[in-house]
Amino acid sequence: MQIALQLVGGLILLMLGGEMLVRGAVQVANRLGVSPLVIGLTLVGFGTSTPELVTSVQAALSGSPGIAYGNIVGSNIANILLILGIAAIITPIAVSSNALKRDSTIMVLVTVVFAIVAALVPMGLLAGLVFVLALAGYIFAAFWQERGLAAGALDDAHGAAFDKSLALQEADPALKAPSEIGRSAFLSILIAIAGLALVVLGGNFLVSGAVGLARSFSISETIIGLTIVAIGTSMPELVTSVMAALRKQTEVAFGNVVGSNIYNILGIGGFTALISPTNVPSEIVRFDNLIMIGASLVLVAFAFTGRRISRREGAVLVAGYAAYVALIWP
């Protein structure tokens, strides 16, 4: 009972704290005159990845690399097979944007690089620094792309980083038009700080519950991280992608998943390695990283053939996730 309360309570605190943190930070940035585009690509874009970040860092610091990296890899697998599969079943997802095609290629590239690095060397300070700098470069490139679109200099559609932030803004109107909310800067800072505290507390509860669950049932911490923890911390992506599908904003749903996977590997993987260097568990290196690569390639194949992901293909993705969980669960 205590373990269940830790797991459920931790997830609730992560979701609530993450929302408060992003809302408060966006309000502060808006009052400081930060560009809405910068806010969207950074603060809002990172919003749905906050639960994964805090959980992975706390797990690594607690000596549970299986939960830390299982959360990252499992979240990416769930994003593609489960979340995008459900979104495609709701509404077939059109993929006609050249920008999204480029982002899909980047997603596959960083996935392969992560798998190679994890297999050859520990995820230490150097690897973490390279990953974080790569994410900064990706966001910077996305910023210039979106600026070109706003100025009419480019004809391409928005990229995945923009769609990731847009998906959260559409799900939360308070983020869509922050300037319309009358709130003092001091109160916004307090909300952001309170949100950060809740996220940290929720991450601690979730990691403790996951470790307790693994020990109680003699299940590998890695499996718990790949499944229960990963699905739990991916709830923001599920909500935002499903809402985008229901609104027929199918490219936003696709970009949200692609952008989240890039953020997860480069951002969460990078910061986790910087804060708590450790080896990626061998079972993830030998099997789950390969599944993550395979799922990414299948997604790209579905997206590029016919420039859409049909309901049938969405069902294949969801069935693939069910098969994956059944295969790794003891």
From TrEMBL:
Regions annotated as coiled coil: none
Location of this chain's protein in the cell: Membrane
Ranges where the Sodium/calcium exchanger membrane region domain occurs: 5-144, 188-328
Broad class of where this protein is predominantly found: membrane
Membrane topology qualifier: Multi-pass membrane protein
Tree of life domain: Bacteria
Keywords carried by this UniProt record: Membrane, Transmembrane, Transmembrane helix
Transmembrane segments: 34-54, 66-94, 106-139, 185-211, 223-246, 253-275, 287-306
Protein's recorded name: Calcium/sodium antiporter
Organism the protein comes from: Paracoccus aerius
Lineage of the organism: Bacteria, Pseudomonadati, Pseudomonadota, Alphaproteobacteria, Rhodobacterales
